[in-house]
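TEACHING EXERCISE
Course module: macromolecular assemblies
Task: Read the component lines below, then compare them to the predicted structure of the full complex.
Student: A.B.
Group: 4
Components provided:
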Amino acid sequence: MRLGVRQCAAGALLVAALVLYSPTLGAQGDNDSFSTALSALRDASFLDKEAIVGRLAESGHPSTRAVLSALVEDRLYVRTADSQVFIVKSTDEALAAWELVDPVSLSDRGSAPRDELTKIGTNNRLRRLLKTTLARFELASPDPSVRLAAVREVLRSLDDATVAVLRERVGTEPDSRVKDEIETGLGLAALDGSDSAARLAAIAVLARRTRLEVRNRLAAMLERSADGVYAESDPQIRAAAAAAVRSIDRRRTVYSALEVVFFGLSVGSVLVLVGTGLAITFGVMGVINMAHGELMMLGAYTVYVAQTLMPGHIALSVFLAIPAAFLVAGTAGVILERSVIRFLYGRPLETLLATFGVSLILQQTVRSVFSANNRSVETPSWMSGTLQLGDALSITLNRFYIILFTLIVFAILLVILKRTRLGLDIRAVAQNRGMAQAMGVRTERVDALTFGLGSGIAGLAGVALSQFTNVGPNLGQSYIIDSFMVVVFGGVGSLWGTLVGGLSMGVVNQILEPYVGAVLAKISVLVALIVFIQRWPRGLFPQTGRAAESH
Amino acid sequence: MPFGRPLLPAMRQDRGGAVLLAGLVALSVLVPLLNLAVPPGSPWHLSTYWLTLLGKYLCFGMLALALDLIWGYAGILSLGHAAFFSLGGYAMGMYLMRQIGTRGVYGDPVLPDFMVFLNWHSLPWFWTGFNHFWFALPMMALAPGGLAFVFGWFAFRSRVTGVYLSIITQALSYALMLAFFRNDMGFGGNNGFTDFKDILGWDLHADRTRVALFVVTAVALAVSYLVCRAVVDSRAGRVLRAIRDAESRVRFLGYRVESYKLWVFVGSSVIAGLAGALYVPQVGIINPSEFAPINSIEAVIWVAVGGRGTLIGAVAGAVLVNYAKTYFTGALPEVWLYALGALFIGVTLFLPRGFMGLVPGTARLIPADGPRGAGRPIRSELGVSAEGKAK
Amino acid sequence: MNLKRLVLAGWLLAAVAGLSLLSVVTFAQDTIKVGVLHSLSGTMAISETTLKDTVLMMVDAQNKKGGLLGKKLEAVVVDPASDWPLFAEKARELLEKNKVAVVFGCWTSVSRKSVLPVFEKDNGLLFYPVQYEGEESSKNVIYTGAAPNQQAIPAVDYLMKEVSVKRWVLEGTDYVYPRTTNKILEAYLKQKGVTDADISINYTPFGYADWQARVAAIKRFGSAGKKTAVVSTINGDANVPFYKELGNQKVSAEDIPVVAFSVGEEELSGLDTKPLVGHLAAWNYFMSINTPANKTFIDQWHAYIKNAKRTSNDPMEAHYIGFNLWVKAVQKAGSTDVEKVLAALPGLEVPNLTGGTAKLLANHHITKPVYIGEVKADGQFDIVWKTSGTVPGDAWSDYLPGSKDIEADWVTLKCGNYNKKTKVCSGQNYK
Amino acid sequence: MSGPPPELLGGKALTLTNLTVSFDGFKALDGLTLTVEPGELRCIIGPNGAGKTTMMDVITGRTRPMSGTARFGPAIDLLTLSEPEIVDVGIGRKFQKPTVFEQLTVFENLELSLWGDKSFWRSLTTRLRSSQRDYVDDILAVIGLASQRETLAGTLAHGQKQWLEIGMLLMQEPELLLVDEPVAGMTPQETDRTAELLTSLKAEHTLIVVEHDMDFVRSIARRVTVLHEGRVLAEGDMSQVQNDPRVIDVYLGA
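Instructor-supplied answer key:
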C-alpha cells in the first residue's frame, strides 16, 4: 500500500507517540538534546525540518506537543537579537509586541516587538507531517471533539502503526462518534488484510457509513483491470462490497439532491439580492438604471474601506459596513435622482442613456481612487467553513449566511413597503402620481427616497458580493444583466416575482450544471427565460386587470 | 413620393438625406485620392489608420441606422442588435478563414489554425460552403435575418412589448455571446477569427483593398439609408409610427401589427448583419465579445445622441460618439470614461432630441419623449401599467 | 433653447481645445517614441495597468541615464480598453500616427492575435510580457513571457516527483491558453503513464463565481485514495471565488494542492489570502526571490509608484527584461530601425531579476528559470522548488500533434513556423 | 377595392346574450343581454363600473367573456374573431379618451384608416388612388377638419381629435359604430357639433353611443339602455327611462 516519505516518517513518530502516551513509561525527555534540536530548526531546509520534527517527537519531551502545535500554527519564532527560539502566545497583527514563551520550560519570557522576531516557516509537507503527528498526541485528548478531529486526521494516512494505535483506543473510547470513526478506520485497514471473515465483517461495518472515501475504497475492490481481472479476487467478498456500495450510494443520492438544492438556493439568493434593488428603482419607478451595478460596487468598496479603517476587527467591520453601505449607496442614489433622473421622468429610455453615463463615471472614479486592481476584502472566520450535516452533506457557511441575509433584507423591504408611511407613499405614487399629489404626498421627496431605498439595497447586495467575489471596478458590470433578467422574469414591479424568479433561476441553473457544464447551463437558463417571456409576456407575477392593458 | 405626405417635412427630410448622401459620395471620392494618390510624406496623406477608422465609423453608422429604423419609427427598443451585427461578422469571418488555406501557421489546407491545435480532424458541417463567396454573402444576411425572423415571430405574435422585449433581446445576445465563447462551438472561442489574408483574391493588408472596402461600405450605408428612407416614407412607415404611438389603436384599424413589427425587425437585423460583415475585414478580427450586451446598449446610445426617428441623426450619432471614443482613448487614456459619461448625461439632460434636435425644423419629426409621445405614463411605456408617473 | 445653444457651444469649445492639445502632443521635439499598449479600463485593466506603469518607470530610468542614442525616450500611452478590435486600431495608431519605435503591450492572447497582423503589415516591434499558450512565433513579436514548457510542464514535474501526485484535475477558464496548455499537459501526463481515469479536465466561463458545485466535484474526484492535485489555468477574476470556495469547503493545500499559472503577487494583493496558504504557483519570477537585482528593482518600483506596499510580479520582470533587451539591441544596432533592431536582438543576453541571465533565442522567445512557490499568509511566496539553470522557451510544443514538427528560427531559417517534415514555411504575412 | 364587400351591407342586428366577464373576482359584466337593430342609434348610460366599456371590449374582441354569446347578424359569431377580423366585418370603435396618432397629420390619420389590403408588403408599395384621396377629403369635410388637413393630429384641440377619430371610423365604412363618451370634456359648441355629426351618421350606420352627459343623450337618442352592475337595468325612450324608479335611485338620483 502507498508508502511515501510522509508515511514512513509518520510511522516512526507514531512509535514515539506510543511511548509518550503509554502511562507505564513516564519517559523523562532530555532538555539539552531537545533545545539543540529546536535551535537547529532556525535555519534548516524544509527537508531537514522534517527530520528535526521527527527527532523532537521521539525525544518524548513533555513540551513537544506545545512546540509542534506552535510550529504548525506559525507561532514558533526566532529572536533576531540572540537567535533564540520562542513560542509566541498570540500573533495578533494589532499588537505591537508579542508575548514570548520558552519552548522548553513553557514559562513566560516577557515580550518582544514584532520586527525583532522572524518566523520559522513551514510548507505543505511539513504542515501535513505536523498535523498527523499532533493528531496522534491528541488521540488521548480529554475533549471528544478534539479526539474526533484527531482520528479523522489519522485516517488520512493509514498504516500498520496507526492501525495499532486505533485498535488500542477503540476499546477505551467512550464517545460513540469517535468510536464509529475509529471503527471506520479499522474497517478500511481490515479490507487490506487476508482473513476473509474479518474482511466481510469490516465490509458490514463500512456499509453503514456514508463517507465518500469509504465508498470509493469499496468500489475500488469491484474494478476490473483491462484483462478482465477483478481487483478483488474473492467473489463472496466482491458481492458483499457491491451490496455495501449500493446501500451507501442510495443514502448518498438523497444528500446530493439536498446539496444541489442548497447550491441552487445560494446562487439564486445572490440573484435575488442583486435584483431586489433594481425591482425598486426599475420595477417601481421605471428607471432603466444601468448604474445599478455600480451602486452595488460602492457597497462592496464600503466593506473594503471599513476593513482598512479598523484592521484586526474583521467581523465587526463587516457588520458596521452593512448600514454604512446602505447609506453610501443610498446617498449616491438620492444624489443621482435629484441631479439627473428627476429631469427624465416620462422618458425611461433616456434614463438608460444617462444612467449608463453615470455608471461609466462611477467605474472610472473607483479606478482613480482605489486603483484598477481588485481590493482584498477579508471574510470573517465565522463565515468561512462548513456546517456538516451527516457525513455527506456539508453546507458552506458563507453561502448559508448570504441566503439568510437575502431573506432578511427582503423581509425588511416588505415591511417598509407595506407597513410604513414611506412605503404607503411609494406605492401611492407608483399607482397614481396625480392622485397622490392631490392627496398631499410630496411626490418629489418620495421619488428621491424611493430611488435612495433601491440604491441602498443595491449597496447591501454589494456587501454580500464582497464576501465571495472580486471587489473591483468591474464588479457591477458582471451582475447588471442578471439583475435585469431576474426583475423581468419575476414581472416588473413585483417584489415577490423577484424573489421567486431569482431563486428558481438559481436552482434550475445548479440542477443543469453538473450535466451540461457551467456555460451551457447558463445559456439554457437564458433561453428558458426568453421562451418563458414569449408565453407569459409580463413575467411570473404580472399586473392583472385593466391597468395592465397599456395603450 | 406617396400623395398626402406633408410636403414641408418631406423637403427637410430630403435635405438631411441629401447632406448625408453628398457626404458619402465626397468621402468615397476623397478617401481613395488622399490615401492612394497623395504620397505618404505629405500632410494631406490619409494614413491607413484613418482609413480603417472611417470605415469602422461607417459600419457603426449602418448599425445605428438599423437600430433607428425599429426604435425611432416602430418603437421597438432592441438591446440585441450587437448579436445580428456579430452574426453577419462571423459569416464574413468564416469566409475569410477559409480563404487563408495553406497559409495558416500549420499550413493545413482545410482546417483553420484554432481547429488544428485543438486537434479537430474535420470541418464541422456548418462550415461547409463558406469557402465560396457566393455562399457566404447571402449567409451574412440570412444568419441574422433568420434569427430575427424566428425570434420576432414568437415575440411579436405573443405581444411581448416595451422593456420585456428589450430585455429578452438582451438575453438573446448574451446567450449567443456565452455560446460563441465555448471553444467546442467551432468558432474559435474567445480568440474568434483573426489573421485574415485576403478577400476575393485581394490582399487584405494592401491599401488598395482597404480603400475598396471603404468605398463598398460607404455605398452600403448610402443604399441602406435610401431603403430605410423609402420604408419610413411609405404608408408602411406611417403605420409603423402609428404603432409606435398607439399600438392597439392600429389593431382596431385592421392592421396586423405583429407582421409589421416582424418584417421591419428582420429588415433592420439584415442591415445590422451586413454592417458587421463589412466591419470584420476592416478591423481584422471578430470574436464573441462583439456580442456583449454592452455593445448593443452603446449602439442605442449613438442613436439617442444623434436623435432618434431621423435616420441621419443615428448615423451622425454613431460617427460622433465613436470619434469621441477614439479621440479620448488616445488623448486622455486615464480619464476618457469621464468624458464619455459626461457626454451621455449632457445629451440626455440638455438635448432630449439628440443633436438633431438642434437642427431647426427636424425637432418636430422626432418623437418627443419615448415611443408613445410626451407626458405618457413612464410605466406604460415599460409595458407595465397605464397608471403611474403621468404628469 | 439658449441653454441648449450654450451647452453645444461648450462642447464645441471643449473639442477644439482638446484637439489643439493633441496636436501639441503629437508635434513634440525629436524623441524616440515608446508605445505602451495596455488596457487602462475594462476587464483587463486590473492586470495591465501595472505593466503600463512598469514601462513608464523603465523609460523614466533610461532617460535619467541620458536616454538612448543621445535622444530622450518618450512614452506614448493609449487605452485599448480591453476591447480586442480596439487593440488593433490602437496598434495602428501607435505605429502609423505616432510612429513609435517599439511597443510594449498586450496581456490576453486574443489581444495579441488581434494586433499581430497590424505589426506584421507595418513591420512594427512588439514586446509581449505574459505567459501564453505558445504555438506562435512572429517576426515582429518578442515573447518575454513563458511558453508552456517554461511554466506548465515543470510545475507538473514538480507535483509528480516531489509531491508524488497520481490524480490530476486540469481546471481552466474556457479560452485558448487553458485549452492549449491542458492539451499539452494531457499529452505529457499520458506519456508519463497516467490513465484517462486519473485525469479530469473541466472548463468554466470567464469571471465564473459559483464554484461550489465544481469544488464539490473536485473533492469527490480527490477522494479516490490517490494523491490528487489541481492544475489551475483559471483566468484572473474567477480565481478569488474559486479559492474562497476551496477554503469554505475545507479543501486544504495539504490534501489537494492547487498549482496556478495565472495567480501572482498582484492577484494575491487583491484577495484574502487565508484560504490560499500552501497552494502553489509556477512562475519565472517571484517578488520574494532574494537577489540584489530584485531588491533594487523593487525599491525602484516603490519609489516610482510612491507606494511601498505595491507588489512586483512575473510579467513586470518580463517587461524589465524586454525593455533592457530592446535598449541593448538599439545600442548594438546604433538605430531604432525595426529591421536593424530585429537583426541585433537574437543572441543578446541581459540579466533577469532572479540572479541569472535571459537570452533571446532565435525563435523570439527567451530563456527563463522556473520557480514553484507556496502561497504565504502575507501574499508572498515561499520558493519550494526551482529548475536547475534556465529553460529555453519553445514556441511550438512537442506534445501537440499539429506542432511537433514545426520550429521557429529567425536567424538561419528566417521563418516563424517551419515544418521540418514538409520543409515548408507557412503562414507568413510578409513578402 | 373601396368599401366593404356587398354581403356586409345587408344591415345586421347586434345581439348580446348572457355575457359574463370578471376581472379577478369582480364581475364587470353579469349576464348582459342586449339587442341593437340595424340603423338604430342606441345610447347606453350607467354609473361608473356598470360595464359599459367592458361591453365594448367584448364586442371588439379585446376582452373574451367567460360565458355568453355575441353575434353580429345571424351569421357572424364575434367571439370567434380576432380584433382585426372584427374590424373587417364592419364594426368600428371610438375610444373614451381620443387616441389619434399624434405624430401623424390629420390626413395621414385618415389615410391609415382606409379600406384596403393592410398587409405589410402591400403598404410598402401602395399609393393613394385619386378616388381614395377624394374620399378622404369628403370625410374631412364631414368631420369639418378640411382646413387642418396637414396639421399634426397631436396639435388638434380636444374636440377636433374626437371628430378626427370618428372620421377614422367612417373611413372603414363600418356598419356598426361604437362611440365611447364622445362629448366628454367638450365645449357646448363642440358638443352640439358632435350631436349633429352623430345624427347625420345614423342613416346608413348603426350607432351605439355610451355617454354620461344627459342633455346630449336626450338631444340625440331615440332608445336608451341603462346598465347597472353589468346587467341591463332599464331600456326604452328617454322619458320612460328617466321615470323608471330603479334608474332614478341607482343613477339619476345620485
